[in-house]
Design goal:
Number of strands: 11
Low-confidence stretches: none
Shape: globular
Number of helices: 20
CATH class of the largest domain: Mainly Alpha
Structural class: alpha+beta
CATH topology of the largest domain: Hypothetical protein af1432
Helix content: 40-55%
Length: 409
């Protein structure tokens, strides 16, 4: 029997042709855990603001794998010895770095599952795939957990200048149509080098790094933390929280088997670590489970659940006020009383029609790790020190905004 050809080429709208260079990477891509990422939007509910932002976690993961291959080729070209197994391990690690994301990328982390990050779930899923593949992901897991002796390989997967960020800025900018996010990913990769087992950027690439940091800042406030997508996510969280509350009171709700598991069971870190059911049900969840349930719940007899679901489905999202500090108790109470009178619900139930969120981000965090610039004389400078354009206090300042979300009636 002829062996199937696993060396495929994928046509990507952002980077052009992406090669799947070997059988292991092909087998990972074909795994049900990975294919599930094709049913999870990369930007969650951002399409409520930018209708083109329909791309998926699968597309992002393939793009990141492609950039990892480009980065390793560059590092080899400047004289660093990276074996074929290390190359494969690094590509597999970045390919699987997001595999633990839940529906709409972040919503499930904060609602149906408590105390478990998507990074932890990614690790458990990778370990399960590794067991199925007879240990072929050992190096990938070692790189992913930063236990591999070549530390720069982990930096390519997770750092302030990793292949994850290079892909998502390029991809999210492309699909949202927000040109401020465009970065020179190819140029940055061509400037990469290694110094004392740390990833560095050659001095002639400094301007590309400056543009990368500015683009990241603009994308956060213009796309990732846009007030309307934050409001949509807050509405979704309130829907899931209400559904969970009703389920705990033995109210029967329509749900797929996987969603039913998370609604009617208390799922925490211990469940994931000691029960195969939690992980297997999680692996069956994607955006369609949530959307389908919300469409059905919009006709539910519970006024809170049905009102929120119908508003969410029809894009009658929470209104948002950006305020300099948390709203006063008087304003919150006044808004709650409006809902009590309008819907005939208790003050506790009225709280589901409100949402408050403190959103914050900084452009660069040198305490985590550095983007280091390598000069021809061998000296190293942090980008914040090396740049003559970017002020360190501006780069590292944490910008915080208070969002007050409420249902308009």
């Amino acid at each position: 029997m002829k062996k199937p050809n696993k060396r495929k080429i994928i046509n990507d709208p952002v980077f052009g042709f992406i090669n799947i260079p070997n059988d292991l990477l092909y087998d990972i891509i074909q795994h049900p855990y990975f294919q599930r990422l094709g049913r999870i939007k990369q930007l969650g509910l951002t399409s409520t603001v930018y209708p083109g932002a329909q791309h998926t976690r699968l597309q992002h993961s393939l793009g990141a794998m492609h950039l990892m291959g480009e980065a390793i080729a560059q590092l080899r070209q400047v004289g660093h010895d990276i074996s074929s197994l290390e190359d494969e391990g690094a590509r597999a690690s970045i390919l699987l770095h997001d595999i633990g994301h839940g529906p709409f990328s972040h919503a499930l982390e904060n609602s149906l599952v408590s105390g478990v990050s998507h990074e932890e779930i990614s690790l458990w899923m990778m370990e399960k795939i590794n067991a199925e593949l007879g240990g072929k992901l050992d190096i990938a897991l070692s790189i992913f957990t930063n236990n591999y002796h070549k530390k720069y390989l982990h930096q390519l997967v997770s750092s302030q200048l990793d292949m994850d960020r290079l892909d998502y800025l390029s991809r999210d900018s492309f699909f949202s149509g927000v040109s401020e996010g465009i970065i020179g990913a190819a140029r940055i990769i061509k400037m990469l080098n290694i110094h004392n087992d740390q990833l560095v950027v050659e001095a002639k690439g400094i301007y590309s790094i400056e543009k990368f940091l500015v683009a990241r800042r603009l994308m956060y406030w213009q796309v990732y933390l846009h007030k309307t997508s934050v409001a949509a996510e807050k509405m979704l969280l309130n829907i899931l929280k209400r559904a969970k509350e009703l389920a705990s009171g033995k109210v029967e709700l329509f749900a797929s088997p996987a969603l039913h598991y998370f609604l009617y069971n208390e799922v925490n870190k211990q469940n994931f670590m000691h029960s195969g059911a939690a992980l297997e049900n999680f692996a069956m969840l994607d955006d369609s489970d949530i959307i389908c349930a919300i469409k059905v719940w919009s006709a539910h007899s519970d006024i809170v659940l049905s009102t929120l679901c119908k508003a969410f489905t029809d894009r009658q999202l929470f209104k948002v006020e950006i305020v300099p500090e948390p709203i006063s108790d008087e304003k919150r109470q006044g808004q709650l009383e409006l809902y009590v009178n309008h819907f005939g619900v208790s003050i506790t139930d009225a709280a589901y029609f409100l949402g408050e969120e403190i959103v914050s981000t900084d452009t660069y965090t040198p305490q985590d790790d550095n983007i280091n610039i390598l000069y021809k004389d061998g000296t190293i400078k942090d980008i914040a020190e090396a740049s003559d354009m970017l002020n360190i206090t501006v780069l590292t300042k944490k910008v915080e905004k208070h969002y007050f979300c409420y249902l308009k009636i």
